[in-house]
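look at this:
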Amino acid sequence: MSRTTLQQIALSLNISVTTVSKALRSYPDVSQKTIDRVKQAAAELNYKPNAFAVNLRTQESKTIGLVIPEIVHQFFSSVVKGVIEEAEKNGYTVIILQSNQNLEIEKKRIEFLMDKQVDGILIALADETVEYFHLFEAQAIDLPIVMFDKIGKTVPCSKVIIDDVKAGYEATKHLIEAGCNKIAHFRGPLTSQNSIDRYEGYKKALAEFDLEFNESNVYHCKEMSFDIGKENARKMLSKRHKIDGIFVNTDMIAVGAMAELKDQGVDIPNDIAIIGFGNWFLSSVITPSLSTVAQPSYSMGKIAFNTLFSQLKRRKENQHIEHETIILPTEIIVRASSTRK
């Protein structure tokens, strides 16, 4: 028989997993009536917390978990470097796991880390993650979590991010200032928060400069790949909408789009200007070089670890932990793909 989860208790009582977690620990901000209901339901459903994870609260493993969507992604590899460097300075070992942008795999990774008795977890969510019961389960046994880059806004934990709305706005504004007035957007997955926010920034810039927003000029990219960039550029050109600028969600997609545009004889940037996102190495070496939004990935990794480390120290000293959201700056890197003659 499978182990009863907090999610099952929550569903049986029609309350949130967070409330169940707090009630089981008799938090003062939960009513006594709710505490009694939750504990009764837990007893009836034979709920038993993970013994290994509960024991974790009384000792240190000097190990943390790091869950990322893709190890091969240049952004995340740079984050990993920052995390490991800071962890080693402080005597911690890092277990690095990949979710492959898959929610079910992500759930298994969190369960694995709980069973391995890590002291805390750093995580960038998979693109398809839209519910967070597995994270609430970890928090229910006082396992600290810090999110970075790809986050869930409703998860009560510290977060290290960039302002994706602002970054999307600035990228689109750059194209407008370069003379573009029919700007397409190659956006990321519909469920990814940073994809949503960059899309909102794109729309905000169009509105501010009194340019028409047309949903048919938005192309969804289910995966961050070169081929998807080529495919969407091909679709865009077939519509003959006279697009003169493209803001692309990641550099890899942008490079694919540029390849297709060049194959079809489009002059970049004079016919169509392009800006990507991420400042990957390849963006500076292709022809024409790709304008992009630079993210502080290495710093994000360092800061994410230090945020978690600070929480671990405070917990050890029985001090109150305040969740914080740290927003790191981005920068527009102007290159040939958006510099018109």
Q: What stands out?
A: The first strand starts at residue 63 and ends at 68. The chain is about 45% helix and 15% strand.
